[in-house]
Structure formats: structure tokens, C-alpha cells
Amino acid sequence: MMRPNNTYPQMNNAQATKDMVRAKYAEIAQQDKDTNASSCCGAGGCSTEVYNIMTDDYGQVKGYNPEADLGLGCGLPTQFAGIKPGDTVLDLGSGAGNDCFVARHETGADGRVIGVDFTPEMIAKAKENAAKLGYQNVEFRQGDIEALPLTSGIVDVVVSNCVLNLVPDKRQAFSEVLRVLKPGGHFSISDVVLKSELPENLRQAAEMYAGCVSGALQESDYLGIIHDLGFEQVSVQKRKPIVVPDDILKNYLSTEELTAFKTSGVGIFSITVSATKPGAKADKAELKAACCGSGSNCC
After folding, report:
1. pLDDT along the chain (299 residues), means of 10
2. Considering all CA atoms of the chain, what is the largest pairwise distance in Å, rounded to the nearest integer?
3. What is the pLDDT of residue 114?
4. What is the predicted pLDDT for the residue at 40?
5. Strands 155-161, 217-218: pairing kind
6. Spatial distance between the Cα atoms of 290 and 295, rounded to a whole number of angstroms
7. Can you tell me whether residue 278 is helix, strand or coil?
8. pLDDT of residue 204
9. How far is CA 214 from CA 167, 173, 261, in A?
């Protein structure tokens, strides 16, 4: 398990970041939920003060499957996603399939759920879980969120849970969300954002990056990307503070730095954001006819 000793090289380019995250989440895929949930998005045994500083409780959510929950999220995006029967839903960074299976409960047997993850071990785990549940309309594809393996304009709803903060080029990731959504389609995404700057030691620590904090943008910049790309009806549906316990912080900060950090007003938050792609949503039958007639493989 990774420890906070800069085992990995510092994040000096996008590919190094992706390689580090892929390696870490391959490891996480082999861990049990208790290990992941008590370790800040699987980043390492991180706190004796709290059990979990990130994840919301899925226990009462319909469609929830405990075997698919690795305890890596920071919100409940499906709770706000407005998924309707028959919808096509895309989950970015689908992990072991947890949010896909919740989405499948909402979209029903007539809908379609696609999970995309770039870690082969996660894809294998998700497919195994889907097979156990007997779902025929849930599929998992290995791919990069910055270049989604989907045809344009085929998705009604995009969800994601504490994943985009790990993506180096967030503008490109949201551009891909815009591309694959149907006109009038929407997303509900939970993610980690900041208010004010993290200390440099935290930002550079590879373990904390994989633990969903140091890869986060300022909230204003995060929302700015969504607005700039032309999404409409942008709304923060939920915001909760993430209080990082002292026994995590002291692994990265000296006593003096820790005191300064706690009095600095720096904030780490989980937010769930929704937004809509401009345009009127087409009739499903018309869209399917146009798509199948194009010779593409989207049907």
C-alpha cells in the first residue's frame, strides 16, 4: 500500500499522473471495501480519528449492491440525476459498478447503462458483479474520460462520483461529457473542490492525489469550465465540507505548517453539480432511427 513518502514521482505531466492513478486504482480493485473506505478513497491507511472522510452512505439507495461499493465516492450523484425509465446513462470512472447498478434500478430493463473506467482491474471486477446480478443492459468499457469510447449524442444522463478531480485535463473531460450527451441531456457529478490553495506539500503528494484531494480545482474554476463550455442550468445540488483529520495532515505538514493550514481558511468540499446540454431532447424513436441509419454502432 502506498505511504506518504513520495514513492511515486511528482506530478509533472499528464501521463505520469494517469499512470500513477491507474496503478493505484488497480491496487484498490483488489482491496476490500473496509480497507478502501477507511483510507480516503483508497489512498492508504489514513486516520484513527474517523472511519471515513469522503463517502456518503448508500445503504438506503435502491439498486445498491454492497459487493460493487469500494467506498471510493464523495457523494450520491444518482440521487440528483433525475434518471427516467428507458434512459441511457453513462457513469464516468465506474469502478466496480456501484453507481451503474443504482442507475440501472432507475432506468429499468428498457434502459441502458454504460460504465467507463481506464483501469482493467476495475473493468473486470465490474463485469463480474454485473454477471452475478444477471443484468443484460449494463456494460463496462475500458477507456479514457478525456477521449470517451462512445458515439456522440447518445446519452441521456451522465453521472460520476469523485473521479474527474483525478483527470489531468478537466476541460477536455467536460467537453467529452458535452459531446456524448443528447441535446437536452444532463449530468450529475459529485467531485472534490477547493476554496483557497492547498499547501504545496499536500499538492505534490502522490498518495493524497490518489486520495481525491490534491487533484482538485478551485470551486470557482471548476464551475467556470462548465459554464464556459456552454452548459445550461448549472447548479450545485449539494455541498459538504471535508474535514481532513490531523493524523492525516501531520504526514504531510510540520507542526508549524499544520497550525498555519488550520487557521488559513482553506476549505475542501464535496460538491454535486448538475448541468444540461443546450437543445431540445429528441424523441427516442426518432433518435434511434437516425442513429441506426447512420451506420454507426451506437444502437
Report:
1. 32 69 71 54 43 63 80 88 97 95 96 96 94 95 96 98 90 98 98 83 55 76 98 96 77 85 82 95 54 45
2. 65
3. 98
4. 46
5. unpaired
6. 9
7. coil
8. 59
9. 11, 18, 14
Are the beta carbons of 288 and 96 closer than 8 angstroms? no
Q: Cell numbers at residue 185, please?
A: 441531456
pLDDT at 299: 41
**What is the pLDDT, as a whole number, of residue 210?**
43
Calpha distance 296→8 (Å, rounded): 41
CA-to-CA distance for 15 and 202, rounded, in angstroms? Answer: 20
Round to whole Å and give the CA distance between 277 and 275: 7
Q: Where are the domains of the chain?
A: 14-279
Pull the grid cell for residue 223.
464551475
What backbone phi and psi angles, to 5 degrees, belong to 26?
-65, -40
Smallest CA-to-CA distance from 163 within 197, 139, 187, 190 is with 190
The contacts of residue 136 (CB under 8 Å, 6+ apart) are 109
> What's domain 14-279's architecture?
3-Layer(aba) Sandwich (3.40)
Distance CA 95, CA 55 (A): 14
Enclosing H/E stretch for 239: strand 232-241
Query: Which residues sit opposite 147 in a β-bridge?
Result: 144
Rounded to whole angstroms, the Cα distance separating 116 from 99 reads: 11
114 touches 160 (CB < 8 A): no
Angle 14-29/120-133 helices, nearest 10 degrees? 40
Alpha helical stretches, state H, 81-155: 98-107, 120-133
Beta strand 138-142 pairing with 155-161: unpaired
Measure the CA–CA gap between 149 and 38, rounded to whole angstroms: 32
Residue 162 near residue 54, CB atoms below 8 Å: yes
